[in-house]
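Study this:
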Amino acid sequence: MGPINPKLADYISMFVSEREAMELGPASCVTLNDGHKMPVLGFGTYAPDKVSVPNSNLLATKVAIEVGFRHIDCAHFYGNEAEVGRAIKMKMEDGTVRREELFYTGKLWNTYHDPELVQPALEKSLQDLQLHYMDLFVIHMPMGLKPGEDLIPRDERGHFIYHNVDLRHTWEAMEKCKDAGLVRSIGVSNFNRRQLELILNKPGLKYKPVCNQVECHLYLNQSKLLGFCQSQEIVLVGYGILGSSRDEKWIDQNLPVLLEDPVLNDIARRQNKSPAQVALRYLLQQGVVVLAKSSNPERIKENFQVFDFHLPEEDMKELGGLNRNMRYVEAKVWRDHPQYPFHDEY
């Protein structure tokens, strides 16, 4: 094995020991800044509308738990928390896993940023999931939308209806959810550095965000944001690791397919691994917690098999050179929102 990247020394120390960080076994966890532990490999559950197989999320989540995933990532906006919750309940009831062995992440959607709406939103998700608490609850995006039943509200002309709420007030309501025992850890998602600093510099801050969940992959390695998060003991959690779901509602279909990259495929052949496994492993060795999404049982199993090899320094450098600061998930439809996060460099 090659030496661990020295610039990650302090951050990697959060992954228990250096030896374990280099080996990254299936049970590897990162210790969050509030003392709780998060598995470094998670199972993502977002499914585009075009995925219409009945109970696909239930079946996929069951397979994920069976093969060893203990970190499940979902969101109210995905519209499948009840299905994912049934899968979790079934695997607990058949003895595959105990609740305390699972790490569940949920998200506060943009229409619930008003402080008085935060706890009811969390409670509704818990009800749908049939869980008593979440392990992690994050603000899904920094961009508020008009409160109401419509998750993507528009006016009569079809324009989005924005709703500006001071994110610091939303964060205070998140802190109260933690104090109430409804969630163990709280964090954010899709925040840029400036928005993170808004929370971190808030007078009377009780709990720092434990994580920032953002798009992160070989074409967008988030090195600057990762460095900032490391300096603040905030874990960077990456979604879209394999190049996103390519959901036509959000993704430009003309963008290159990450898993077809020739450099990635060449390294995968040398390692006798799949391109997906190498893409996951690269970010794990960079200290990123990764979320892998698939509804295919064989690919779910394959995505979990990333703990039995180590990428040498030369492969890491070659893969790092693929970065092109390219987003798949730009959320351009909201680029005129005052809190749109992607105008900033990071």
User: Anything to note?
Assistant: Strands lie at 29-31, 37-39, 41-44, 71-73, 103-108, 134-139, 183-189, 211-215, 235-239, 289-292.
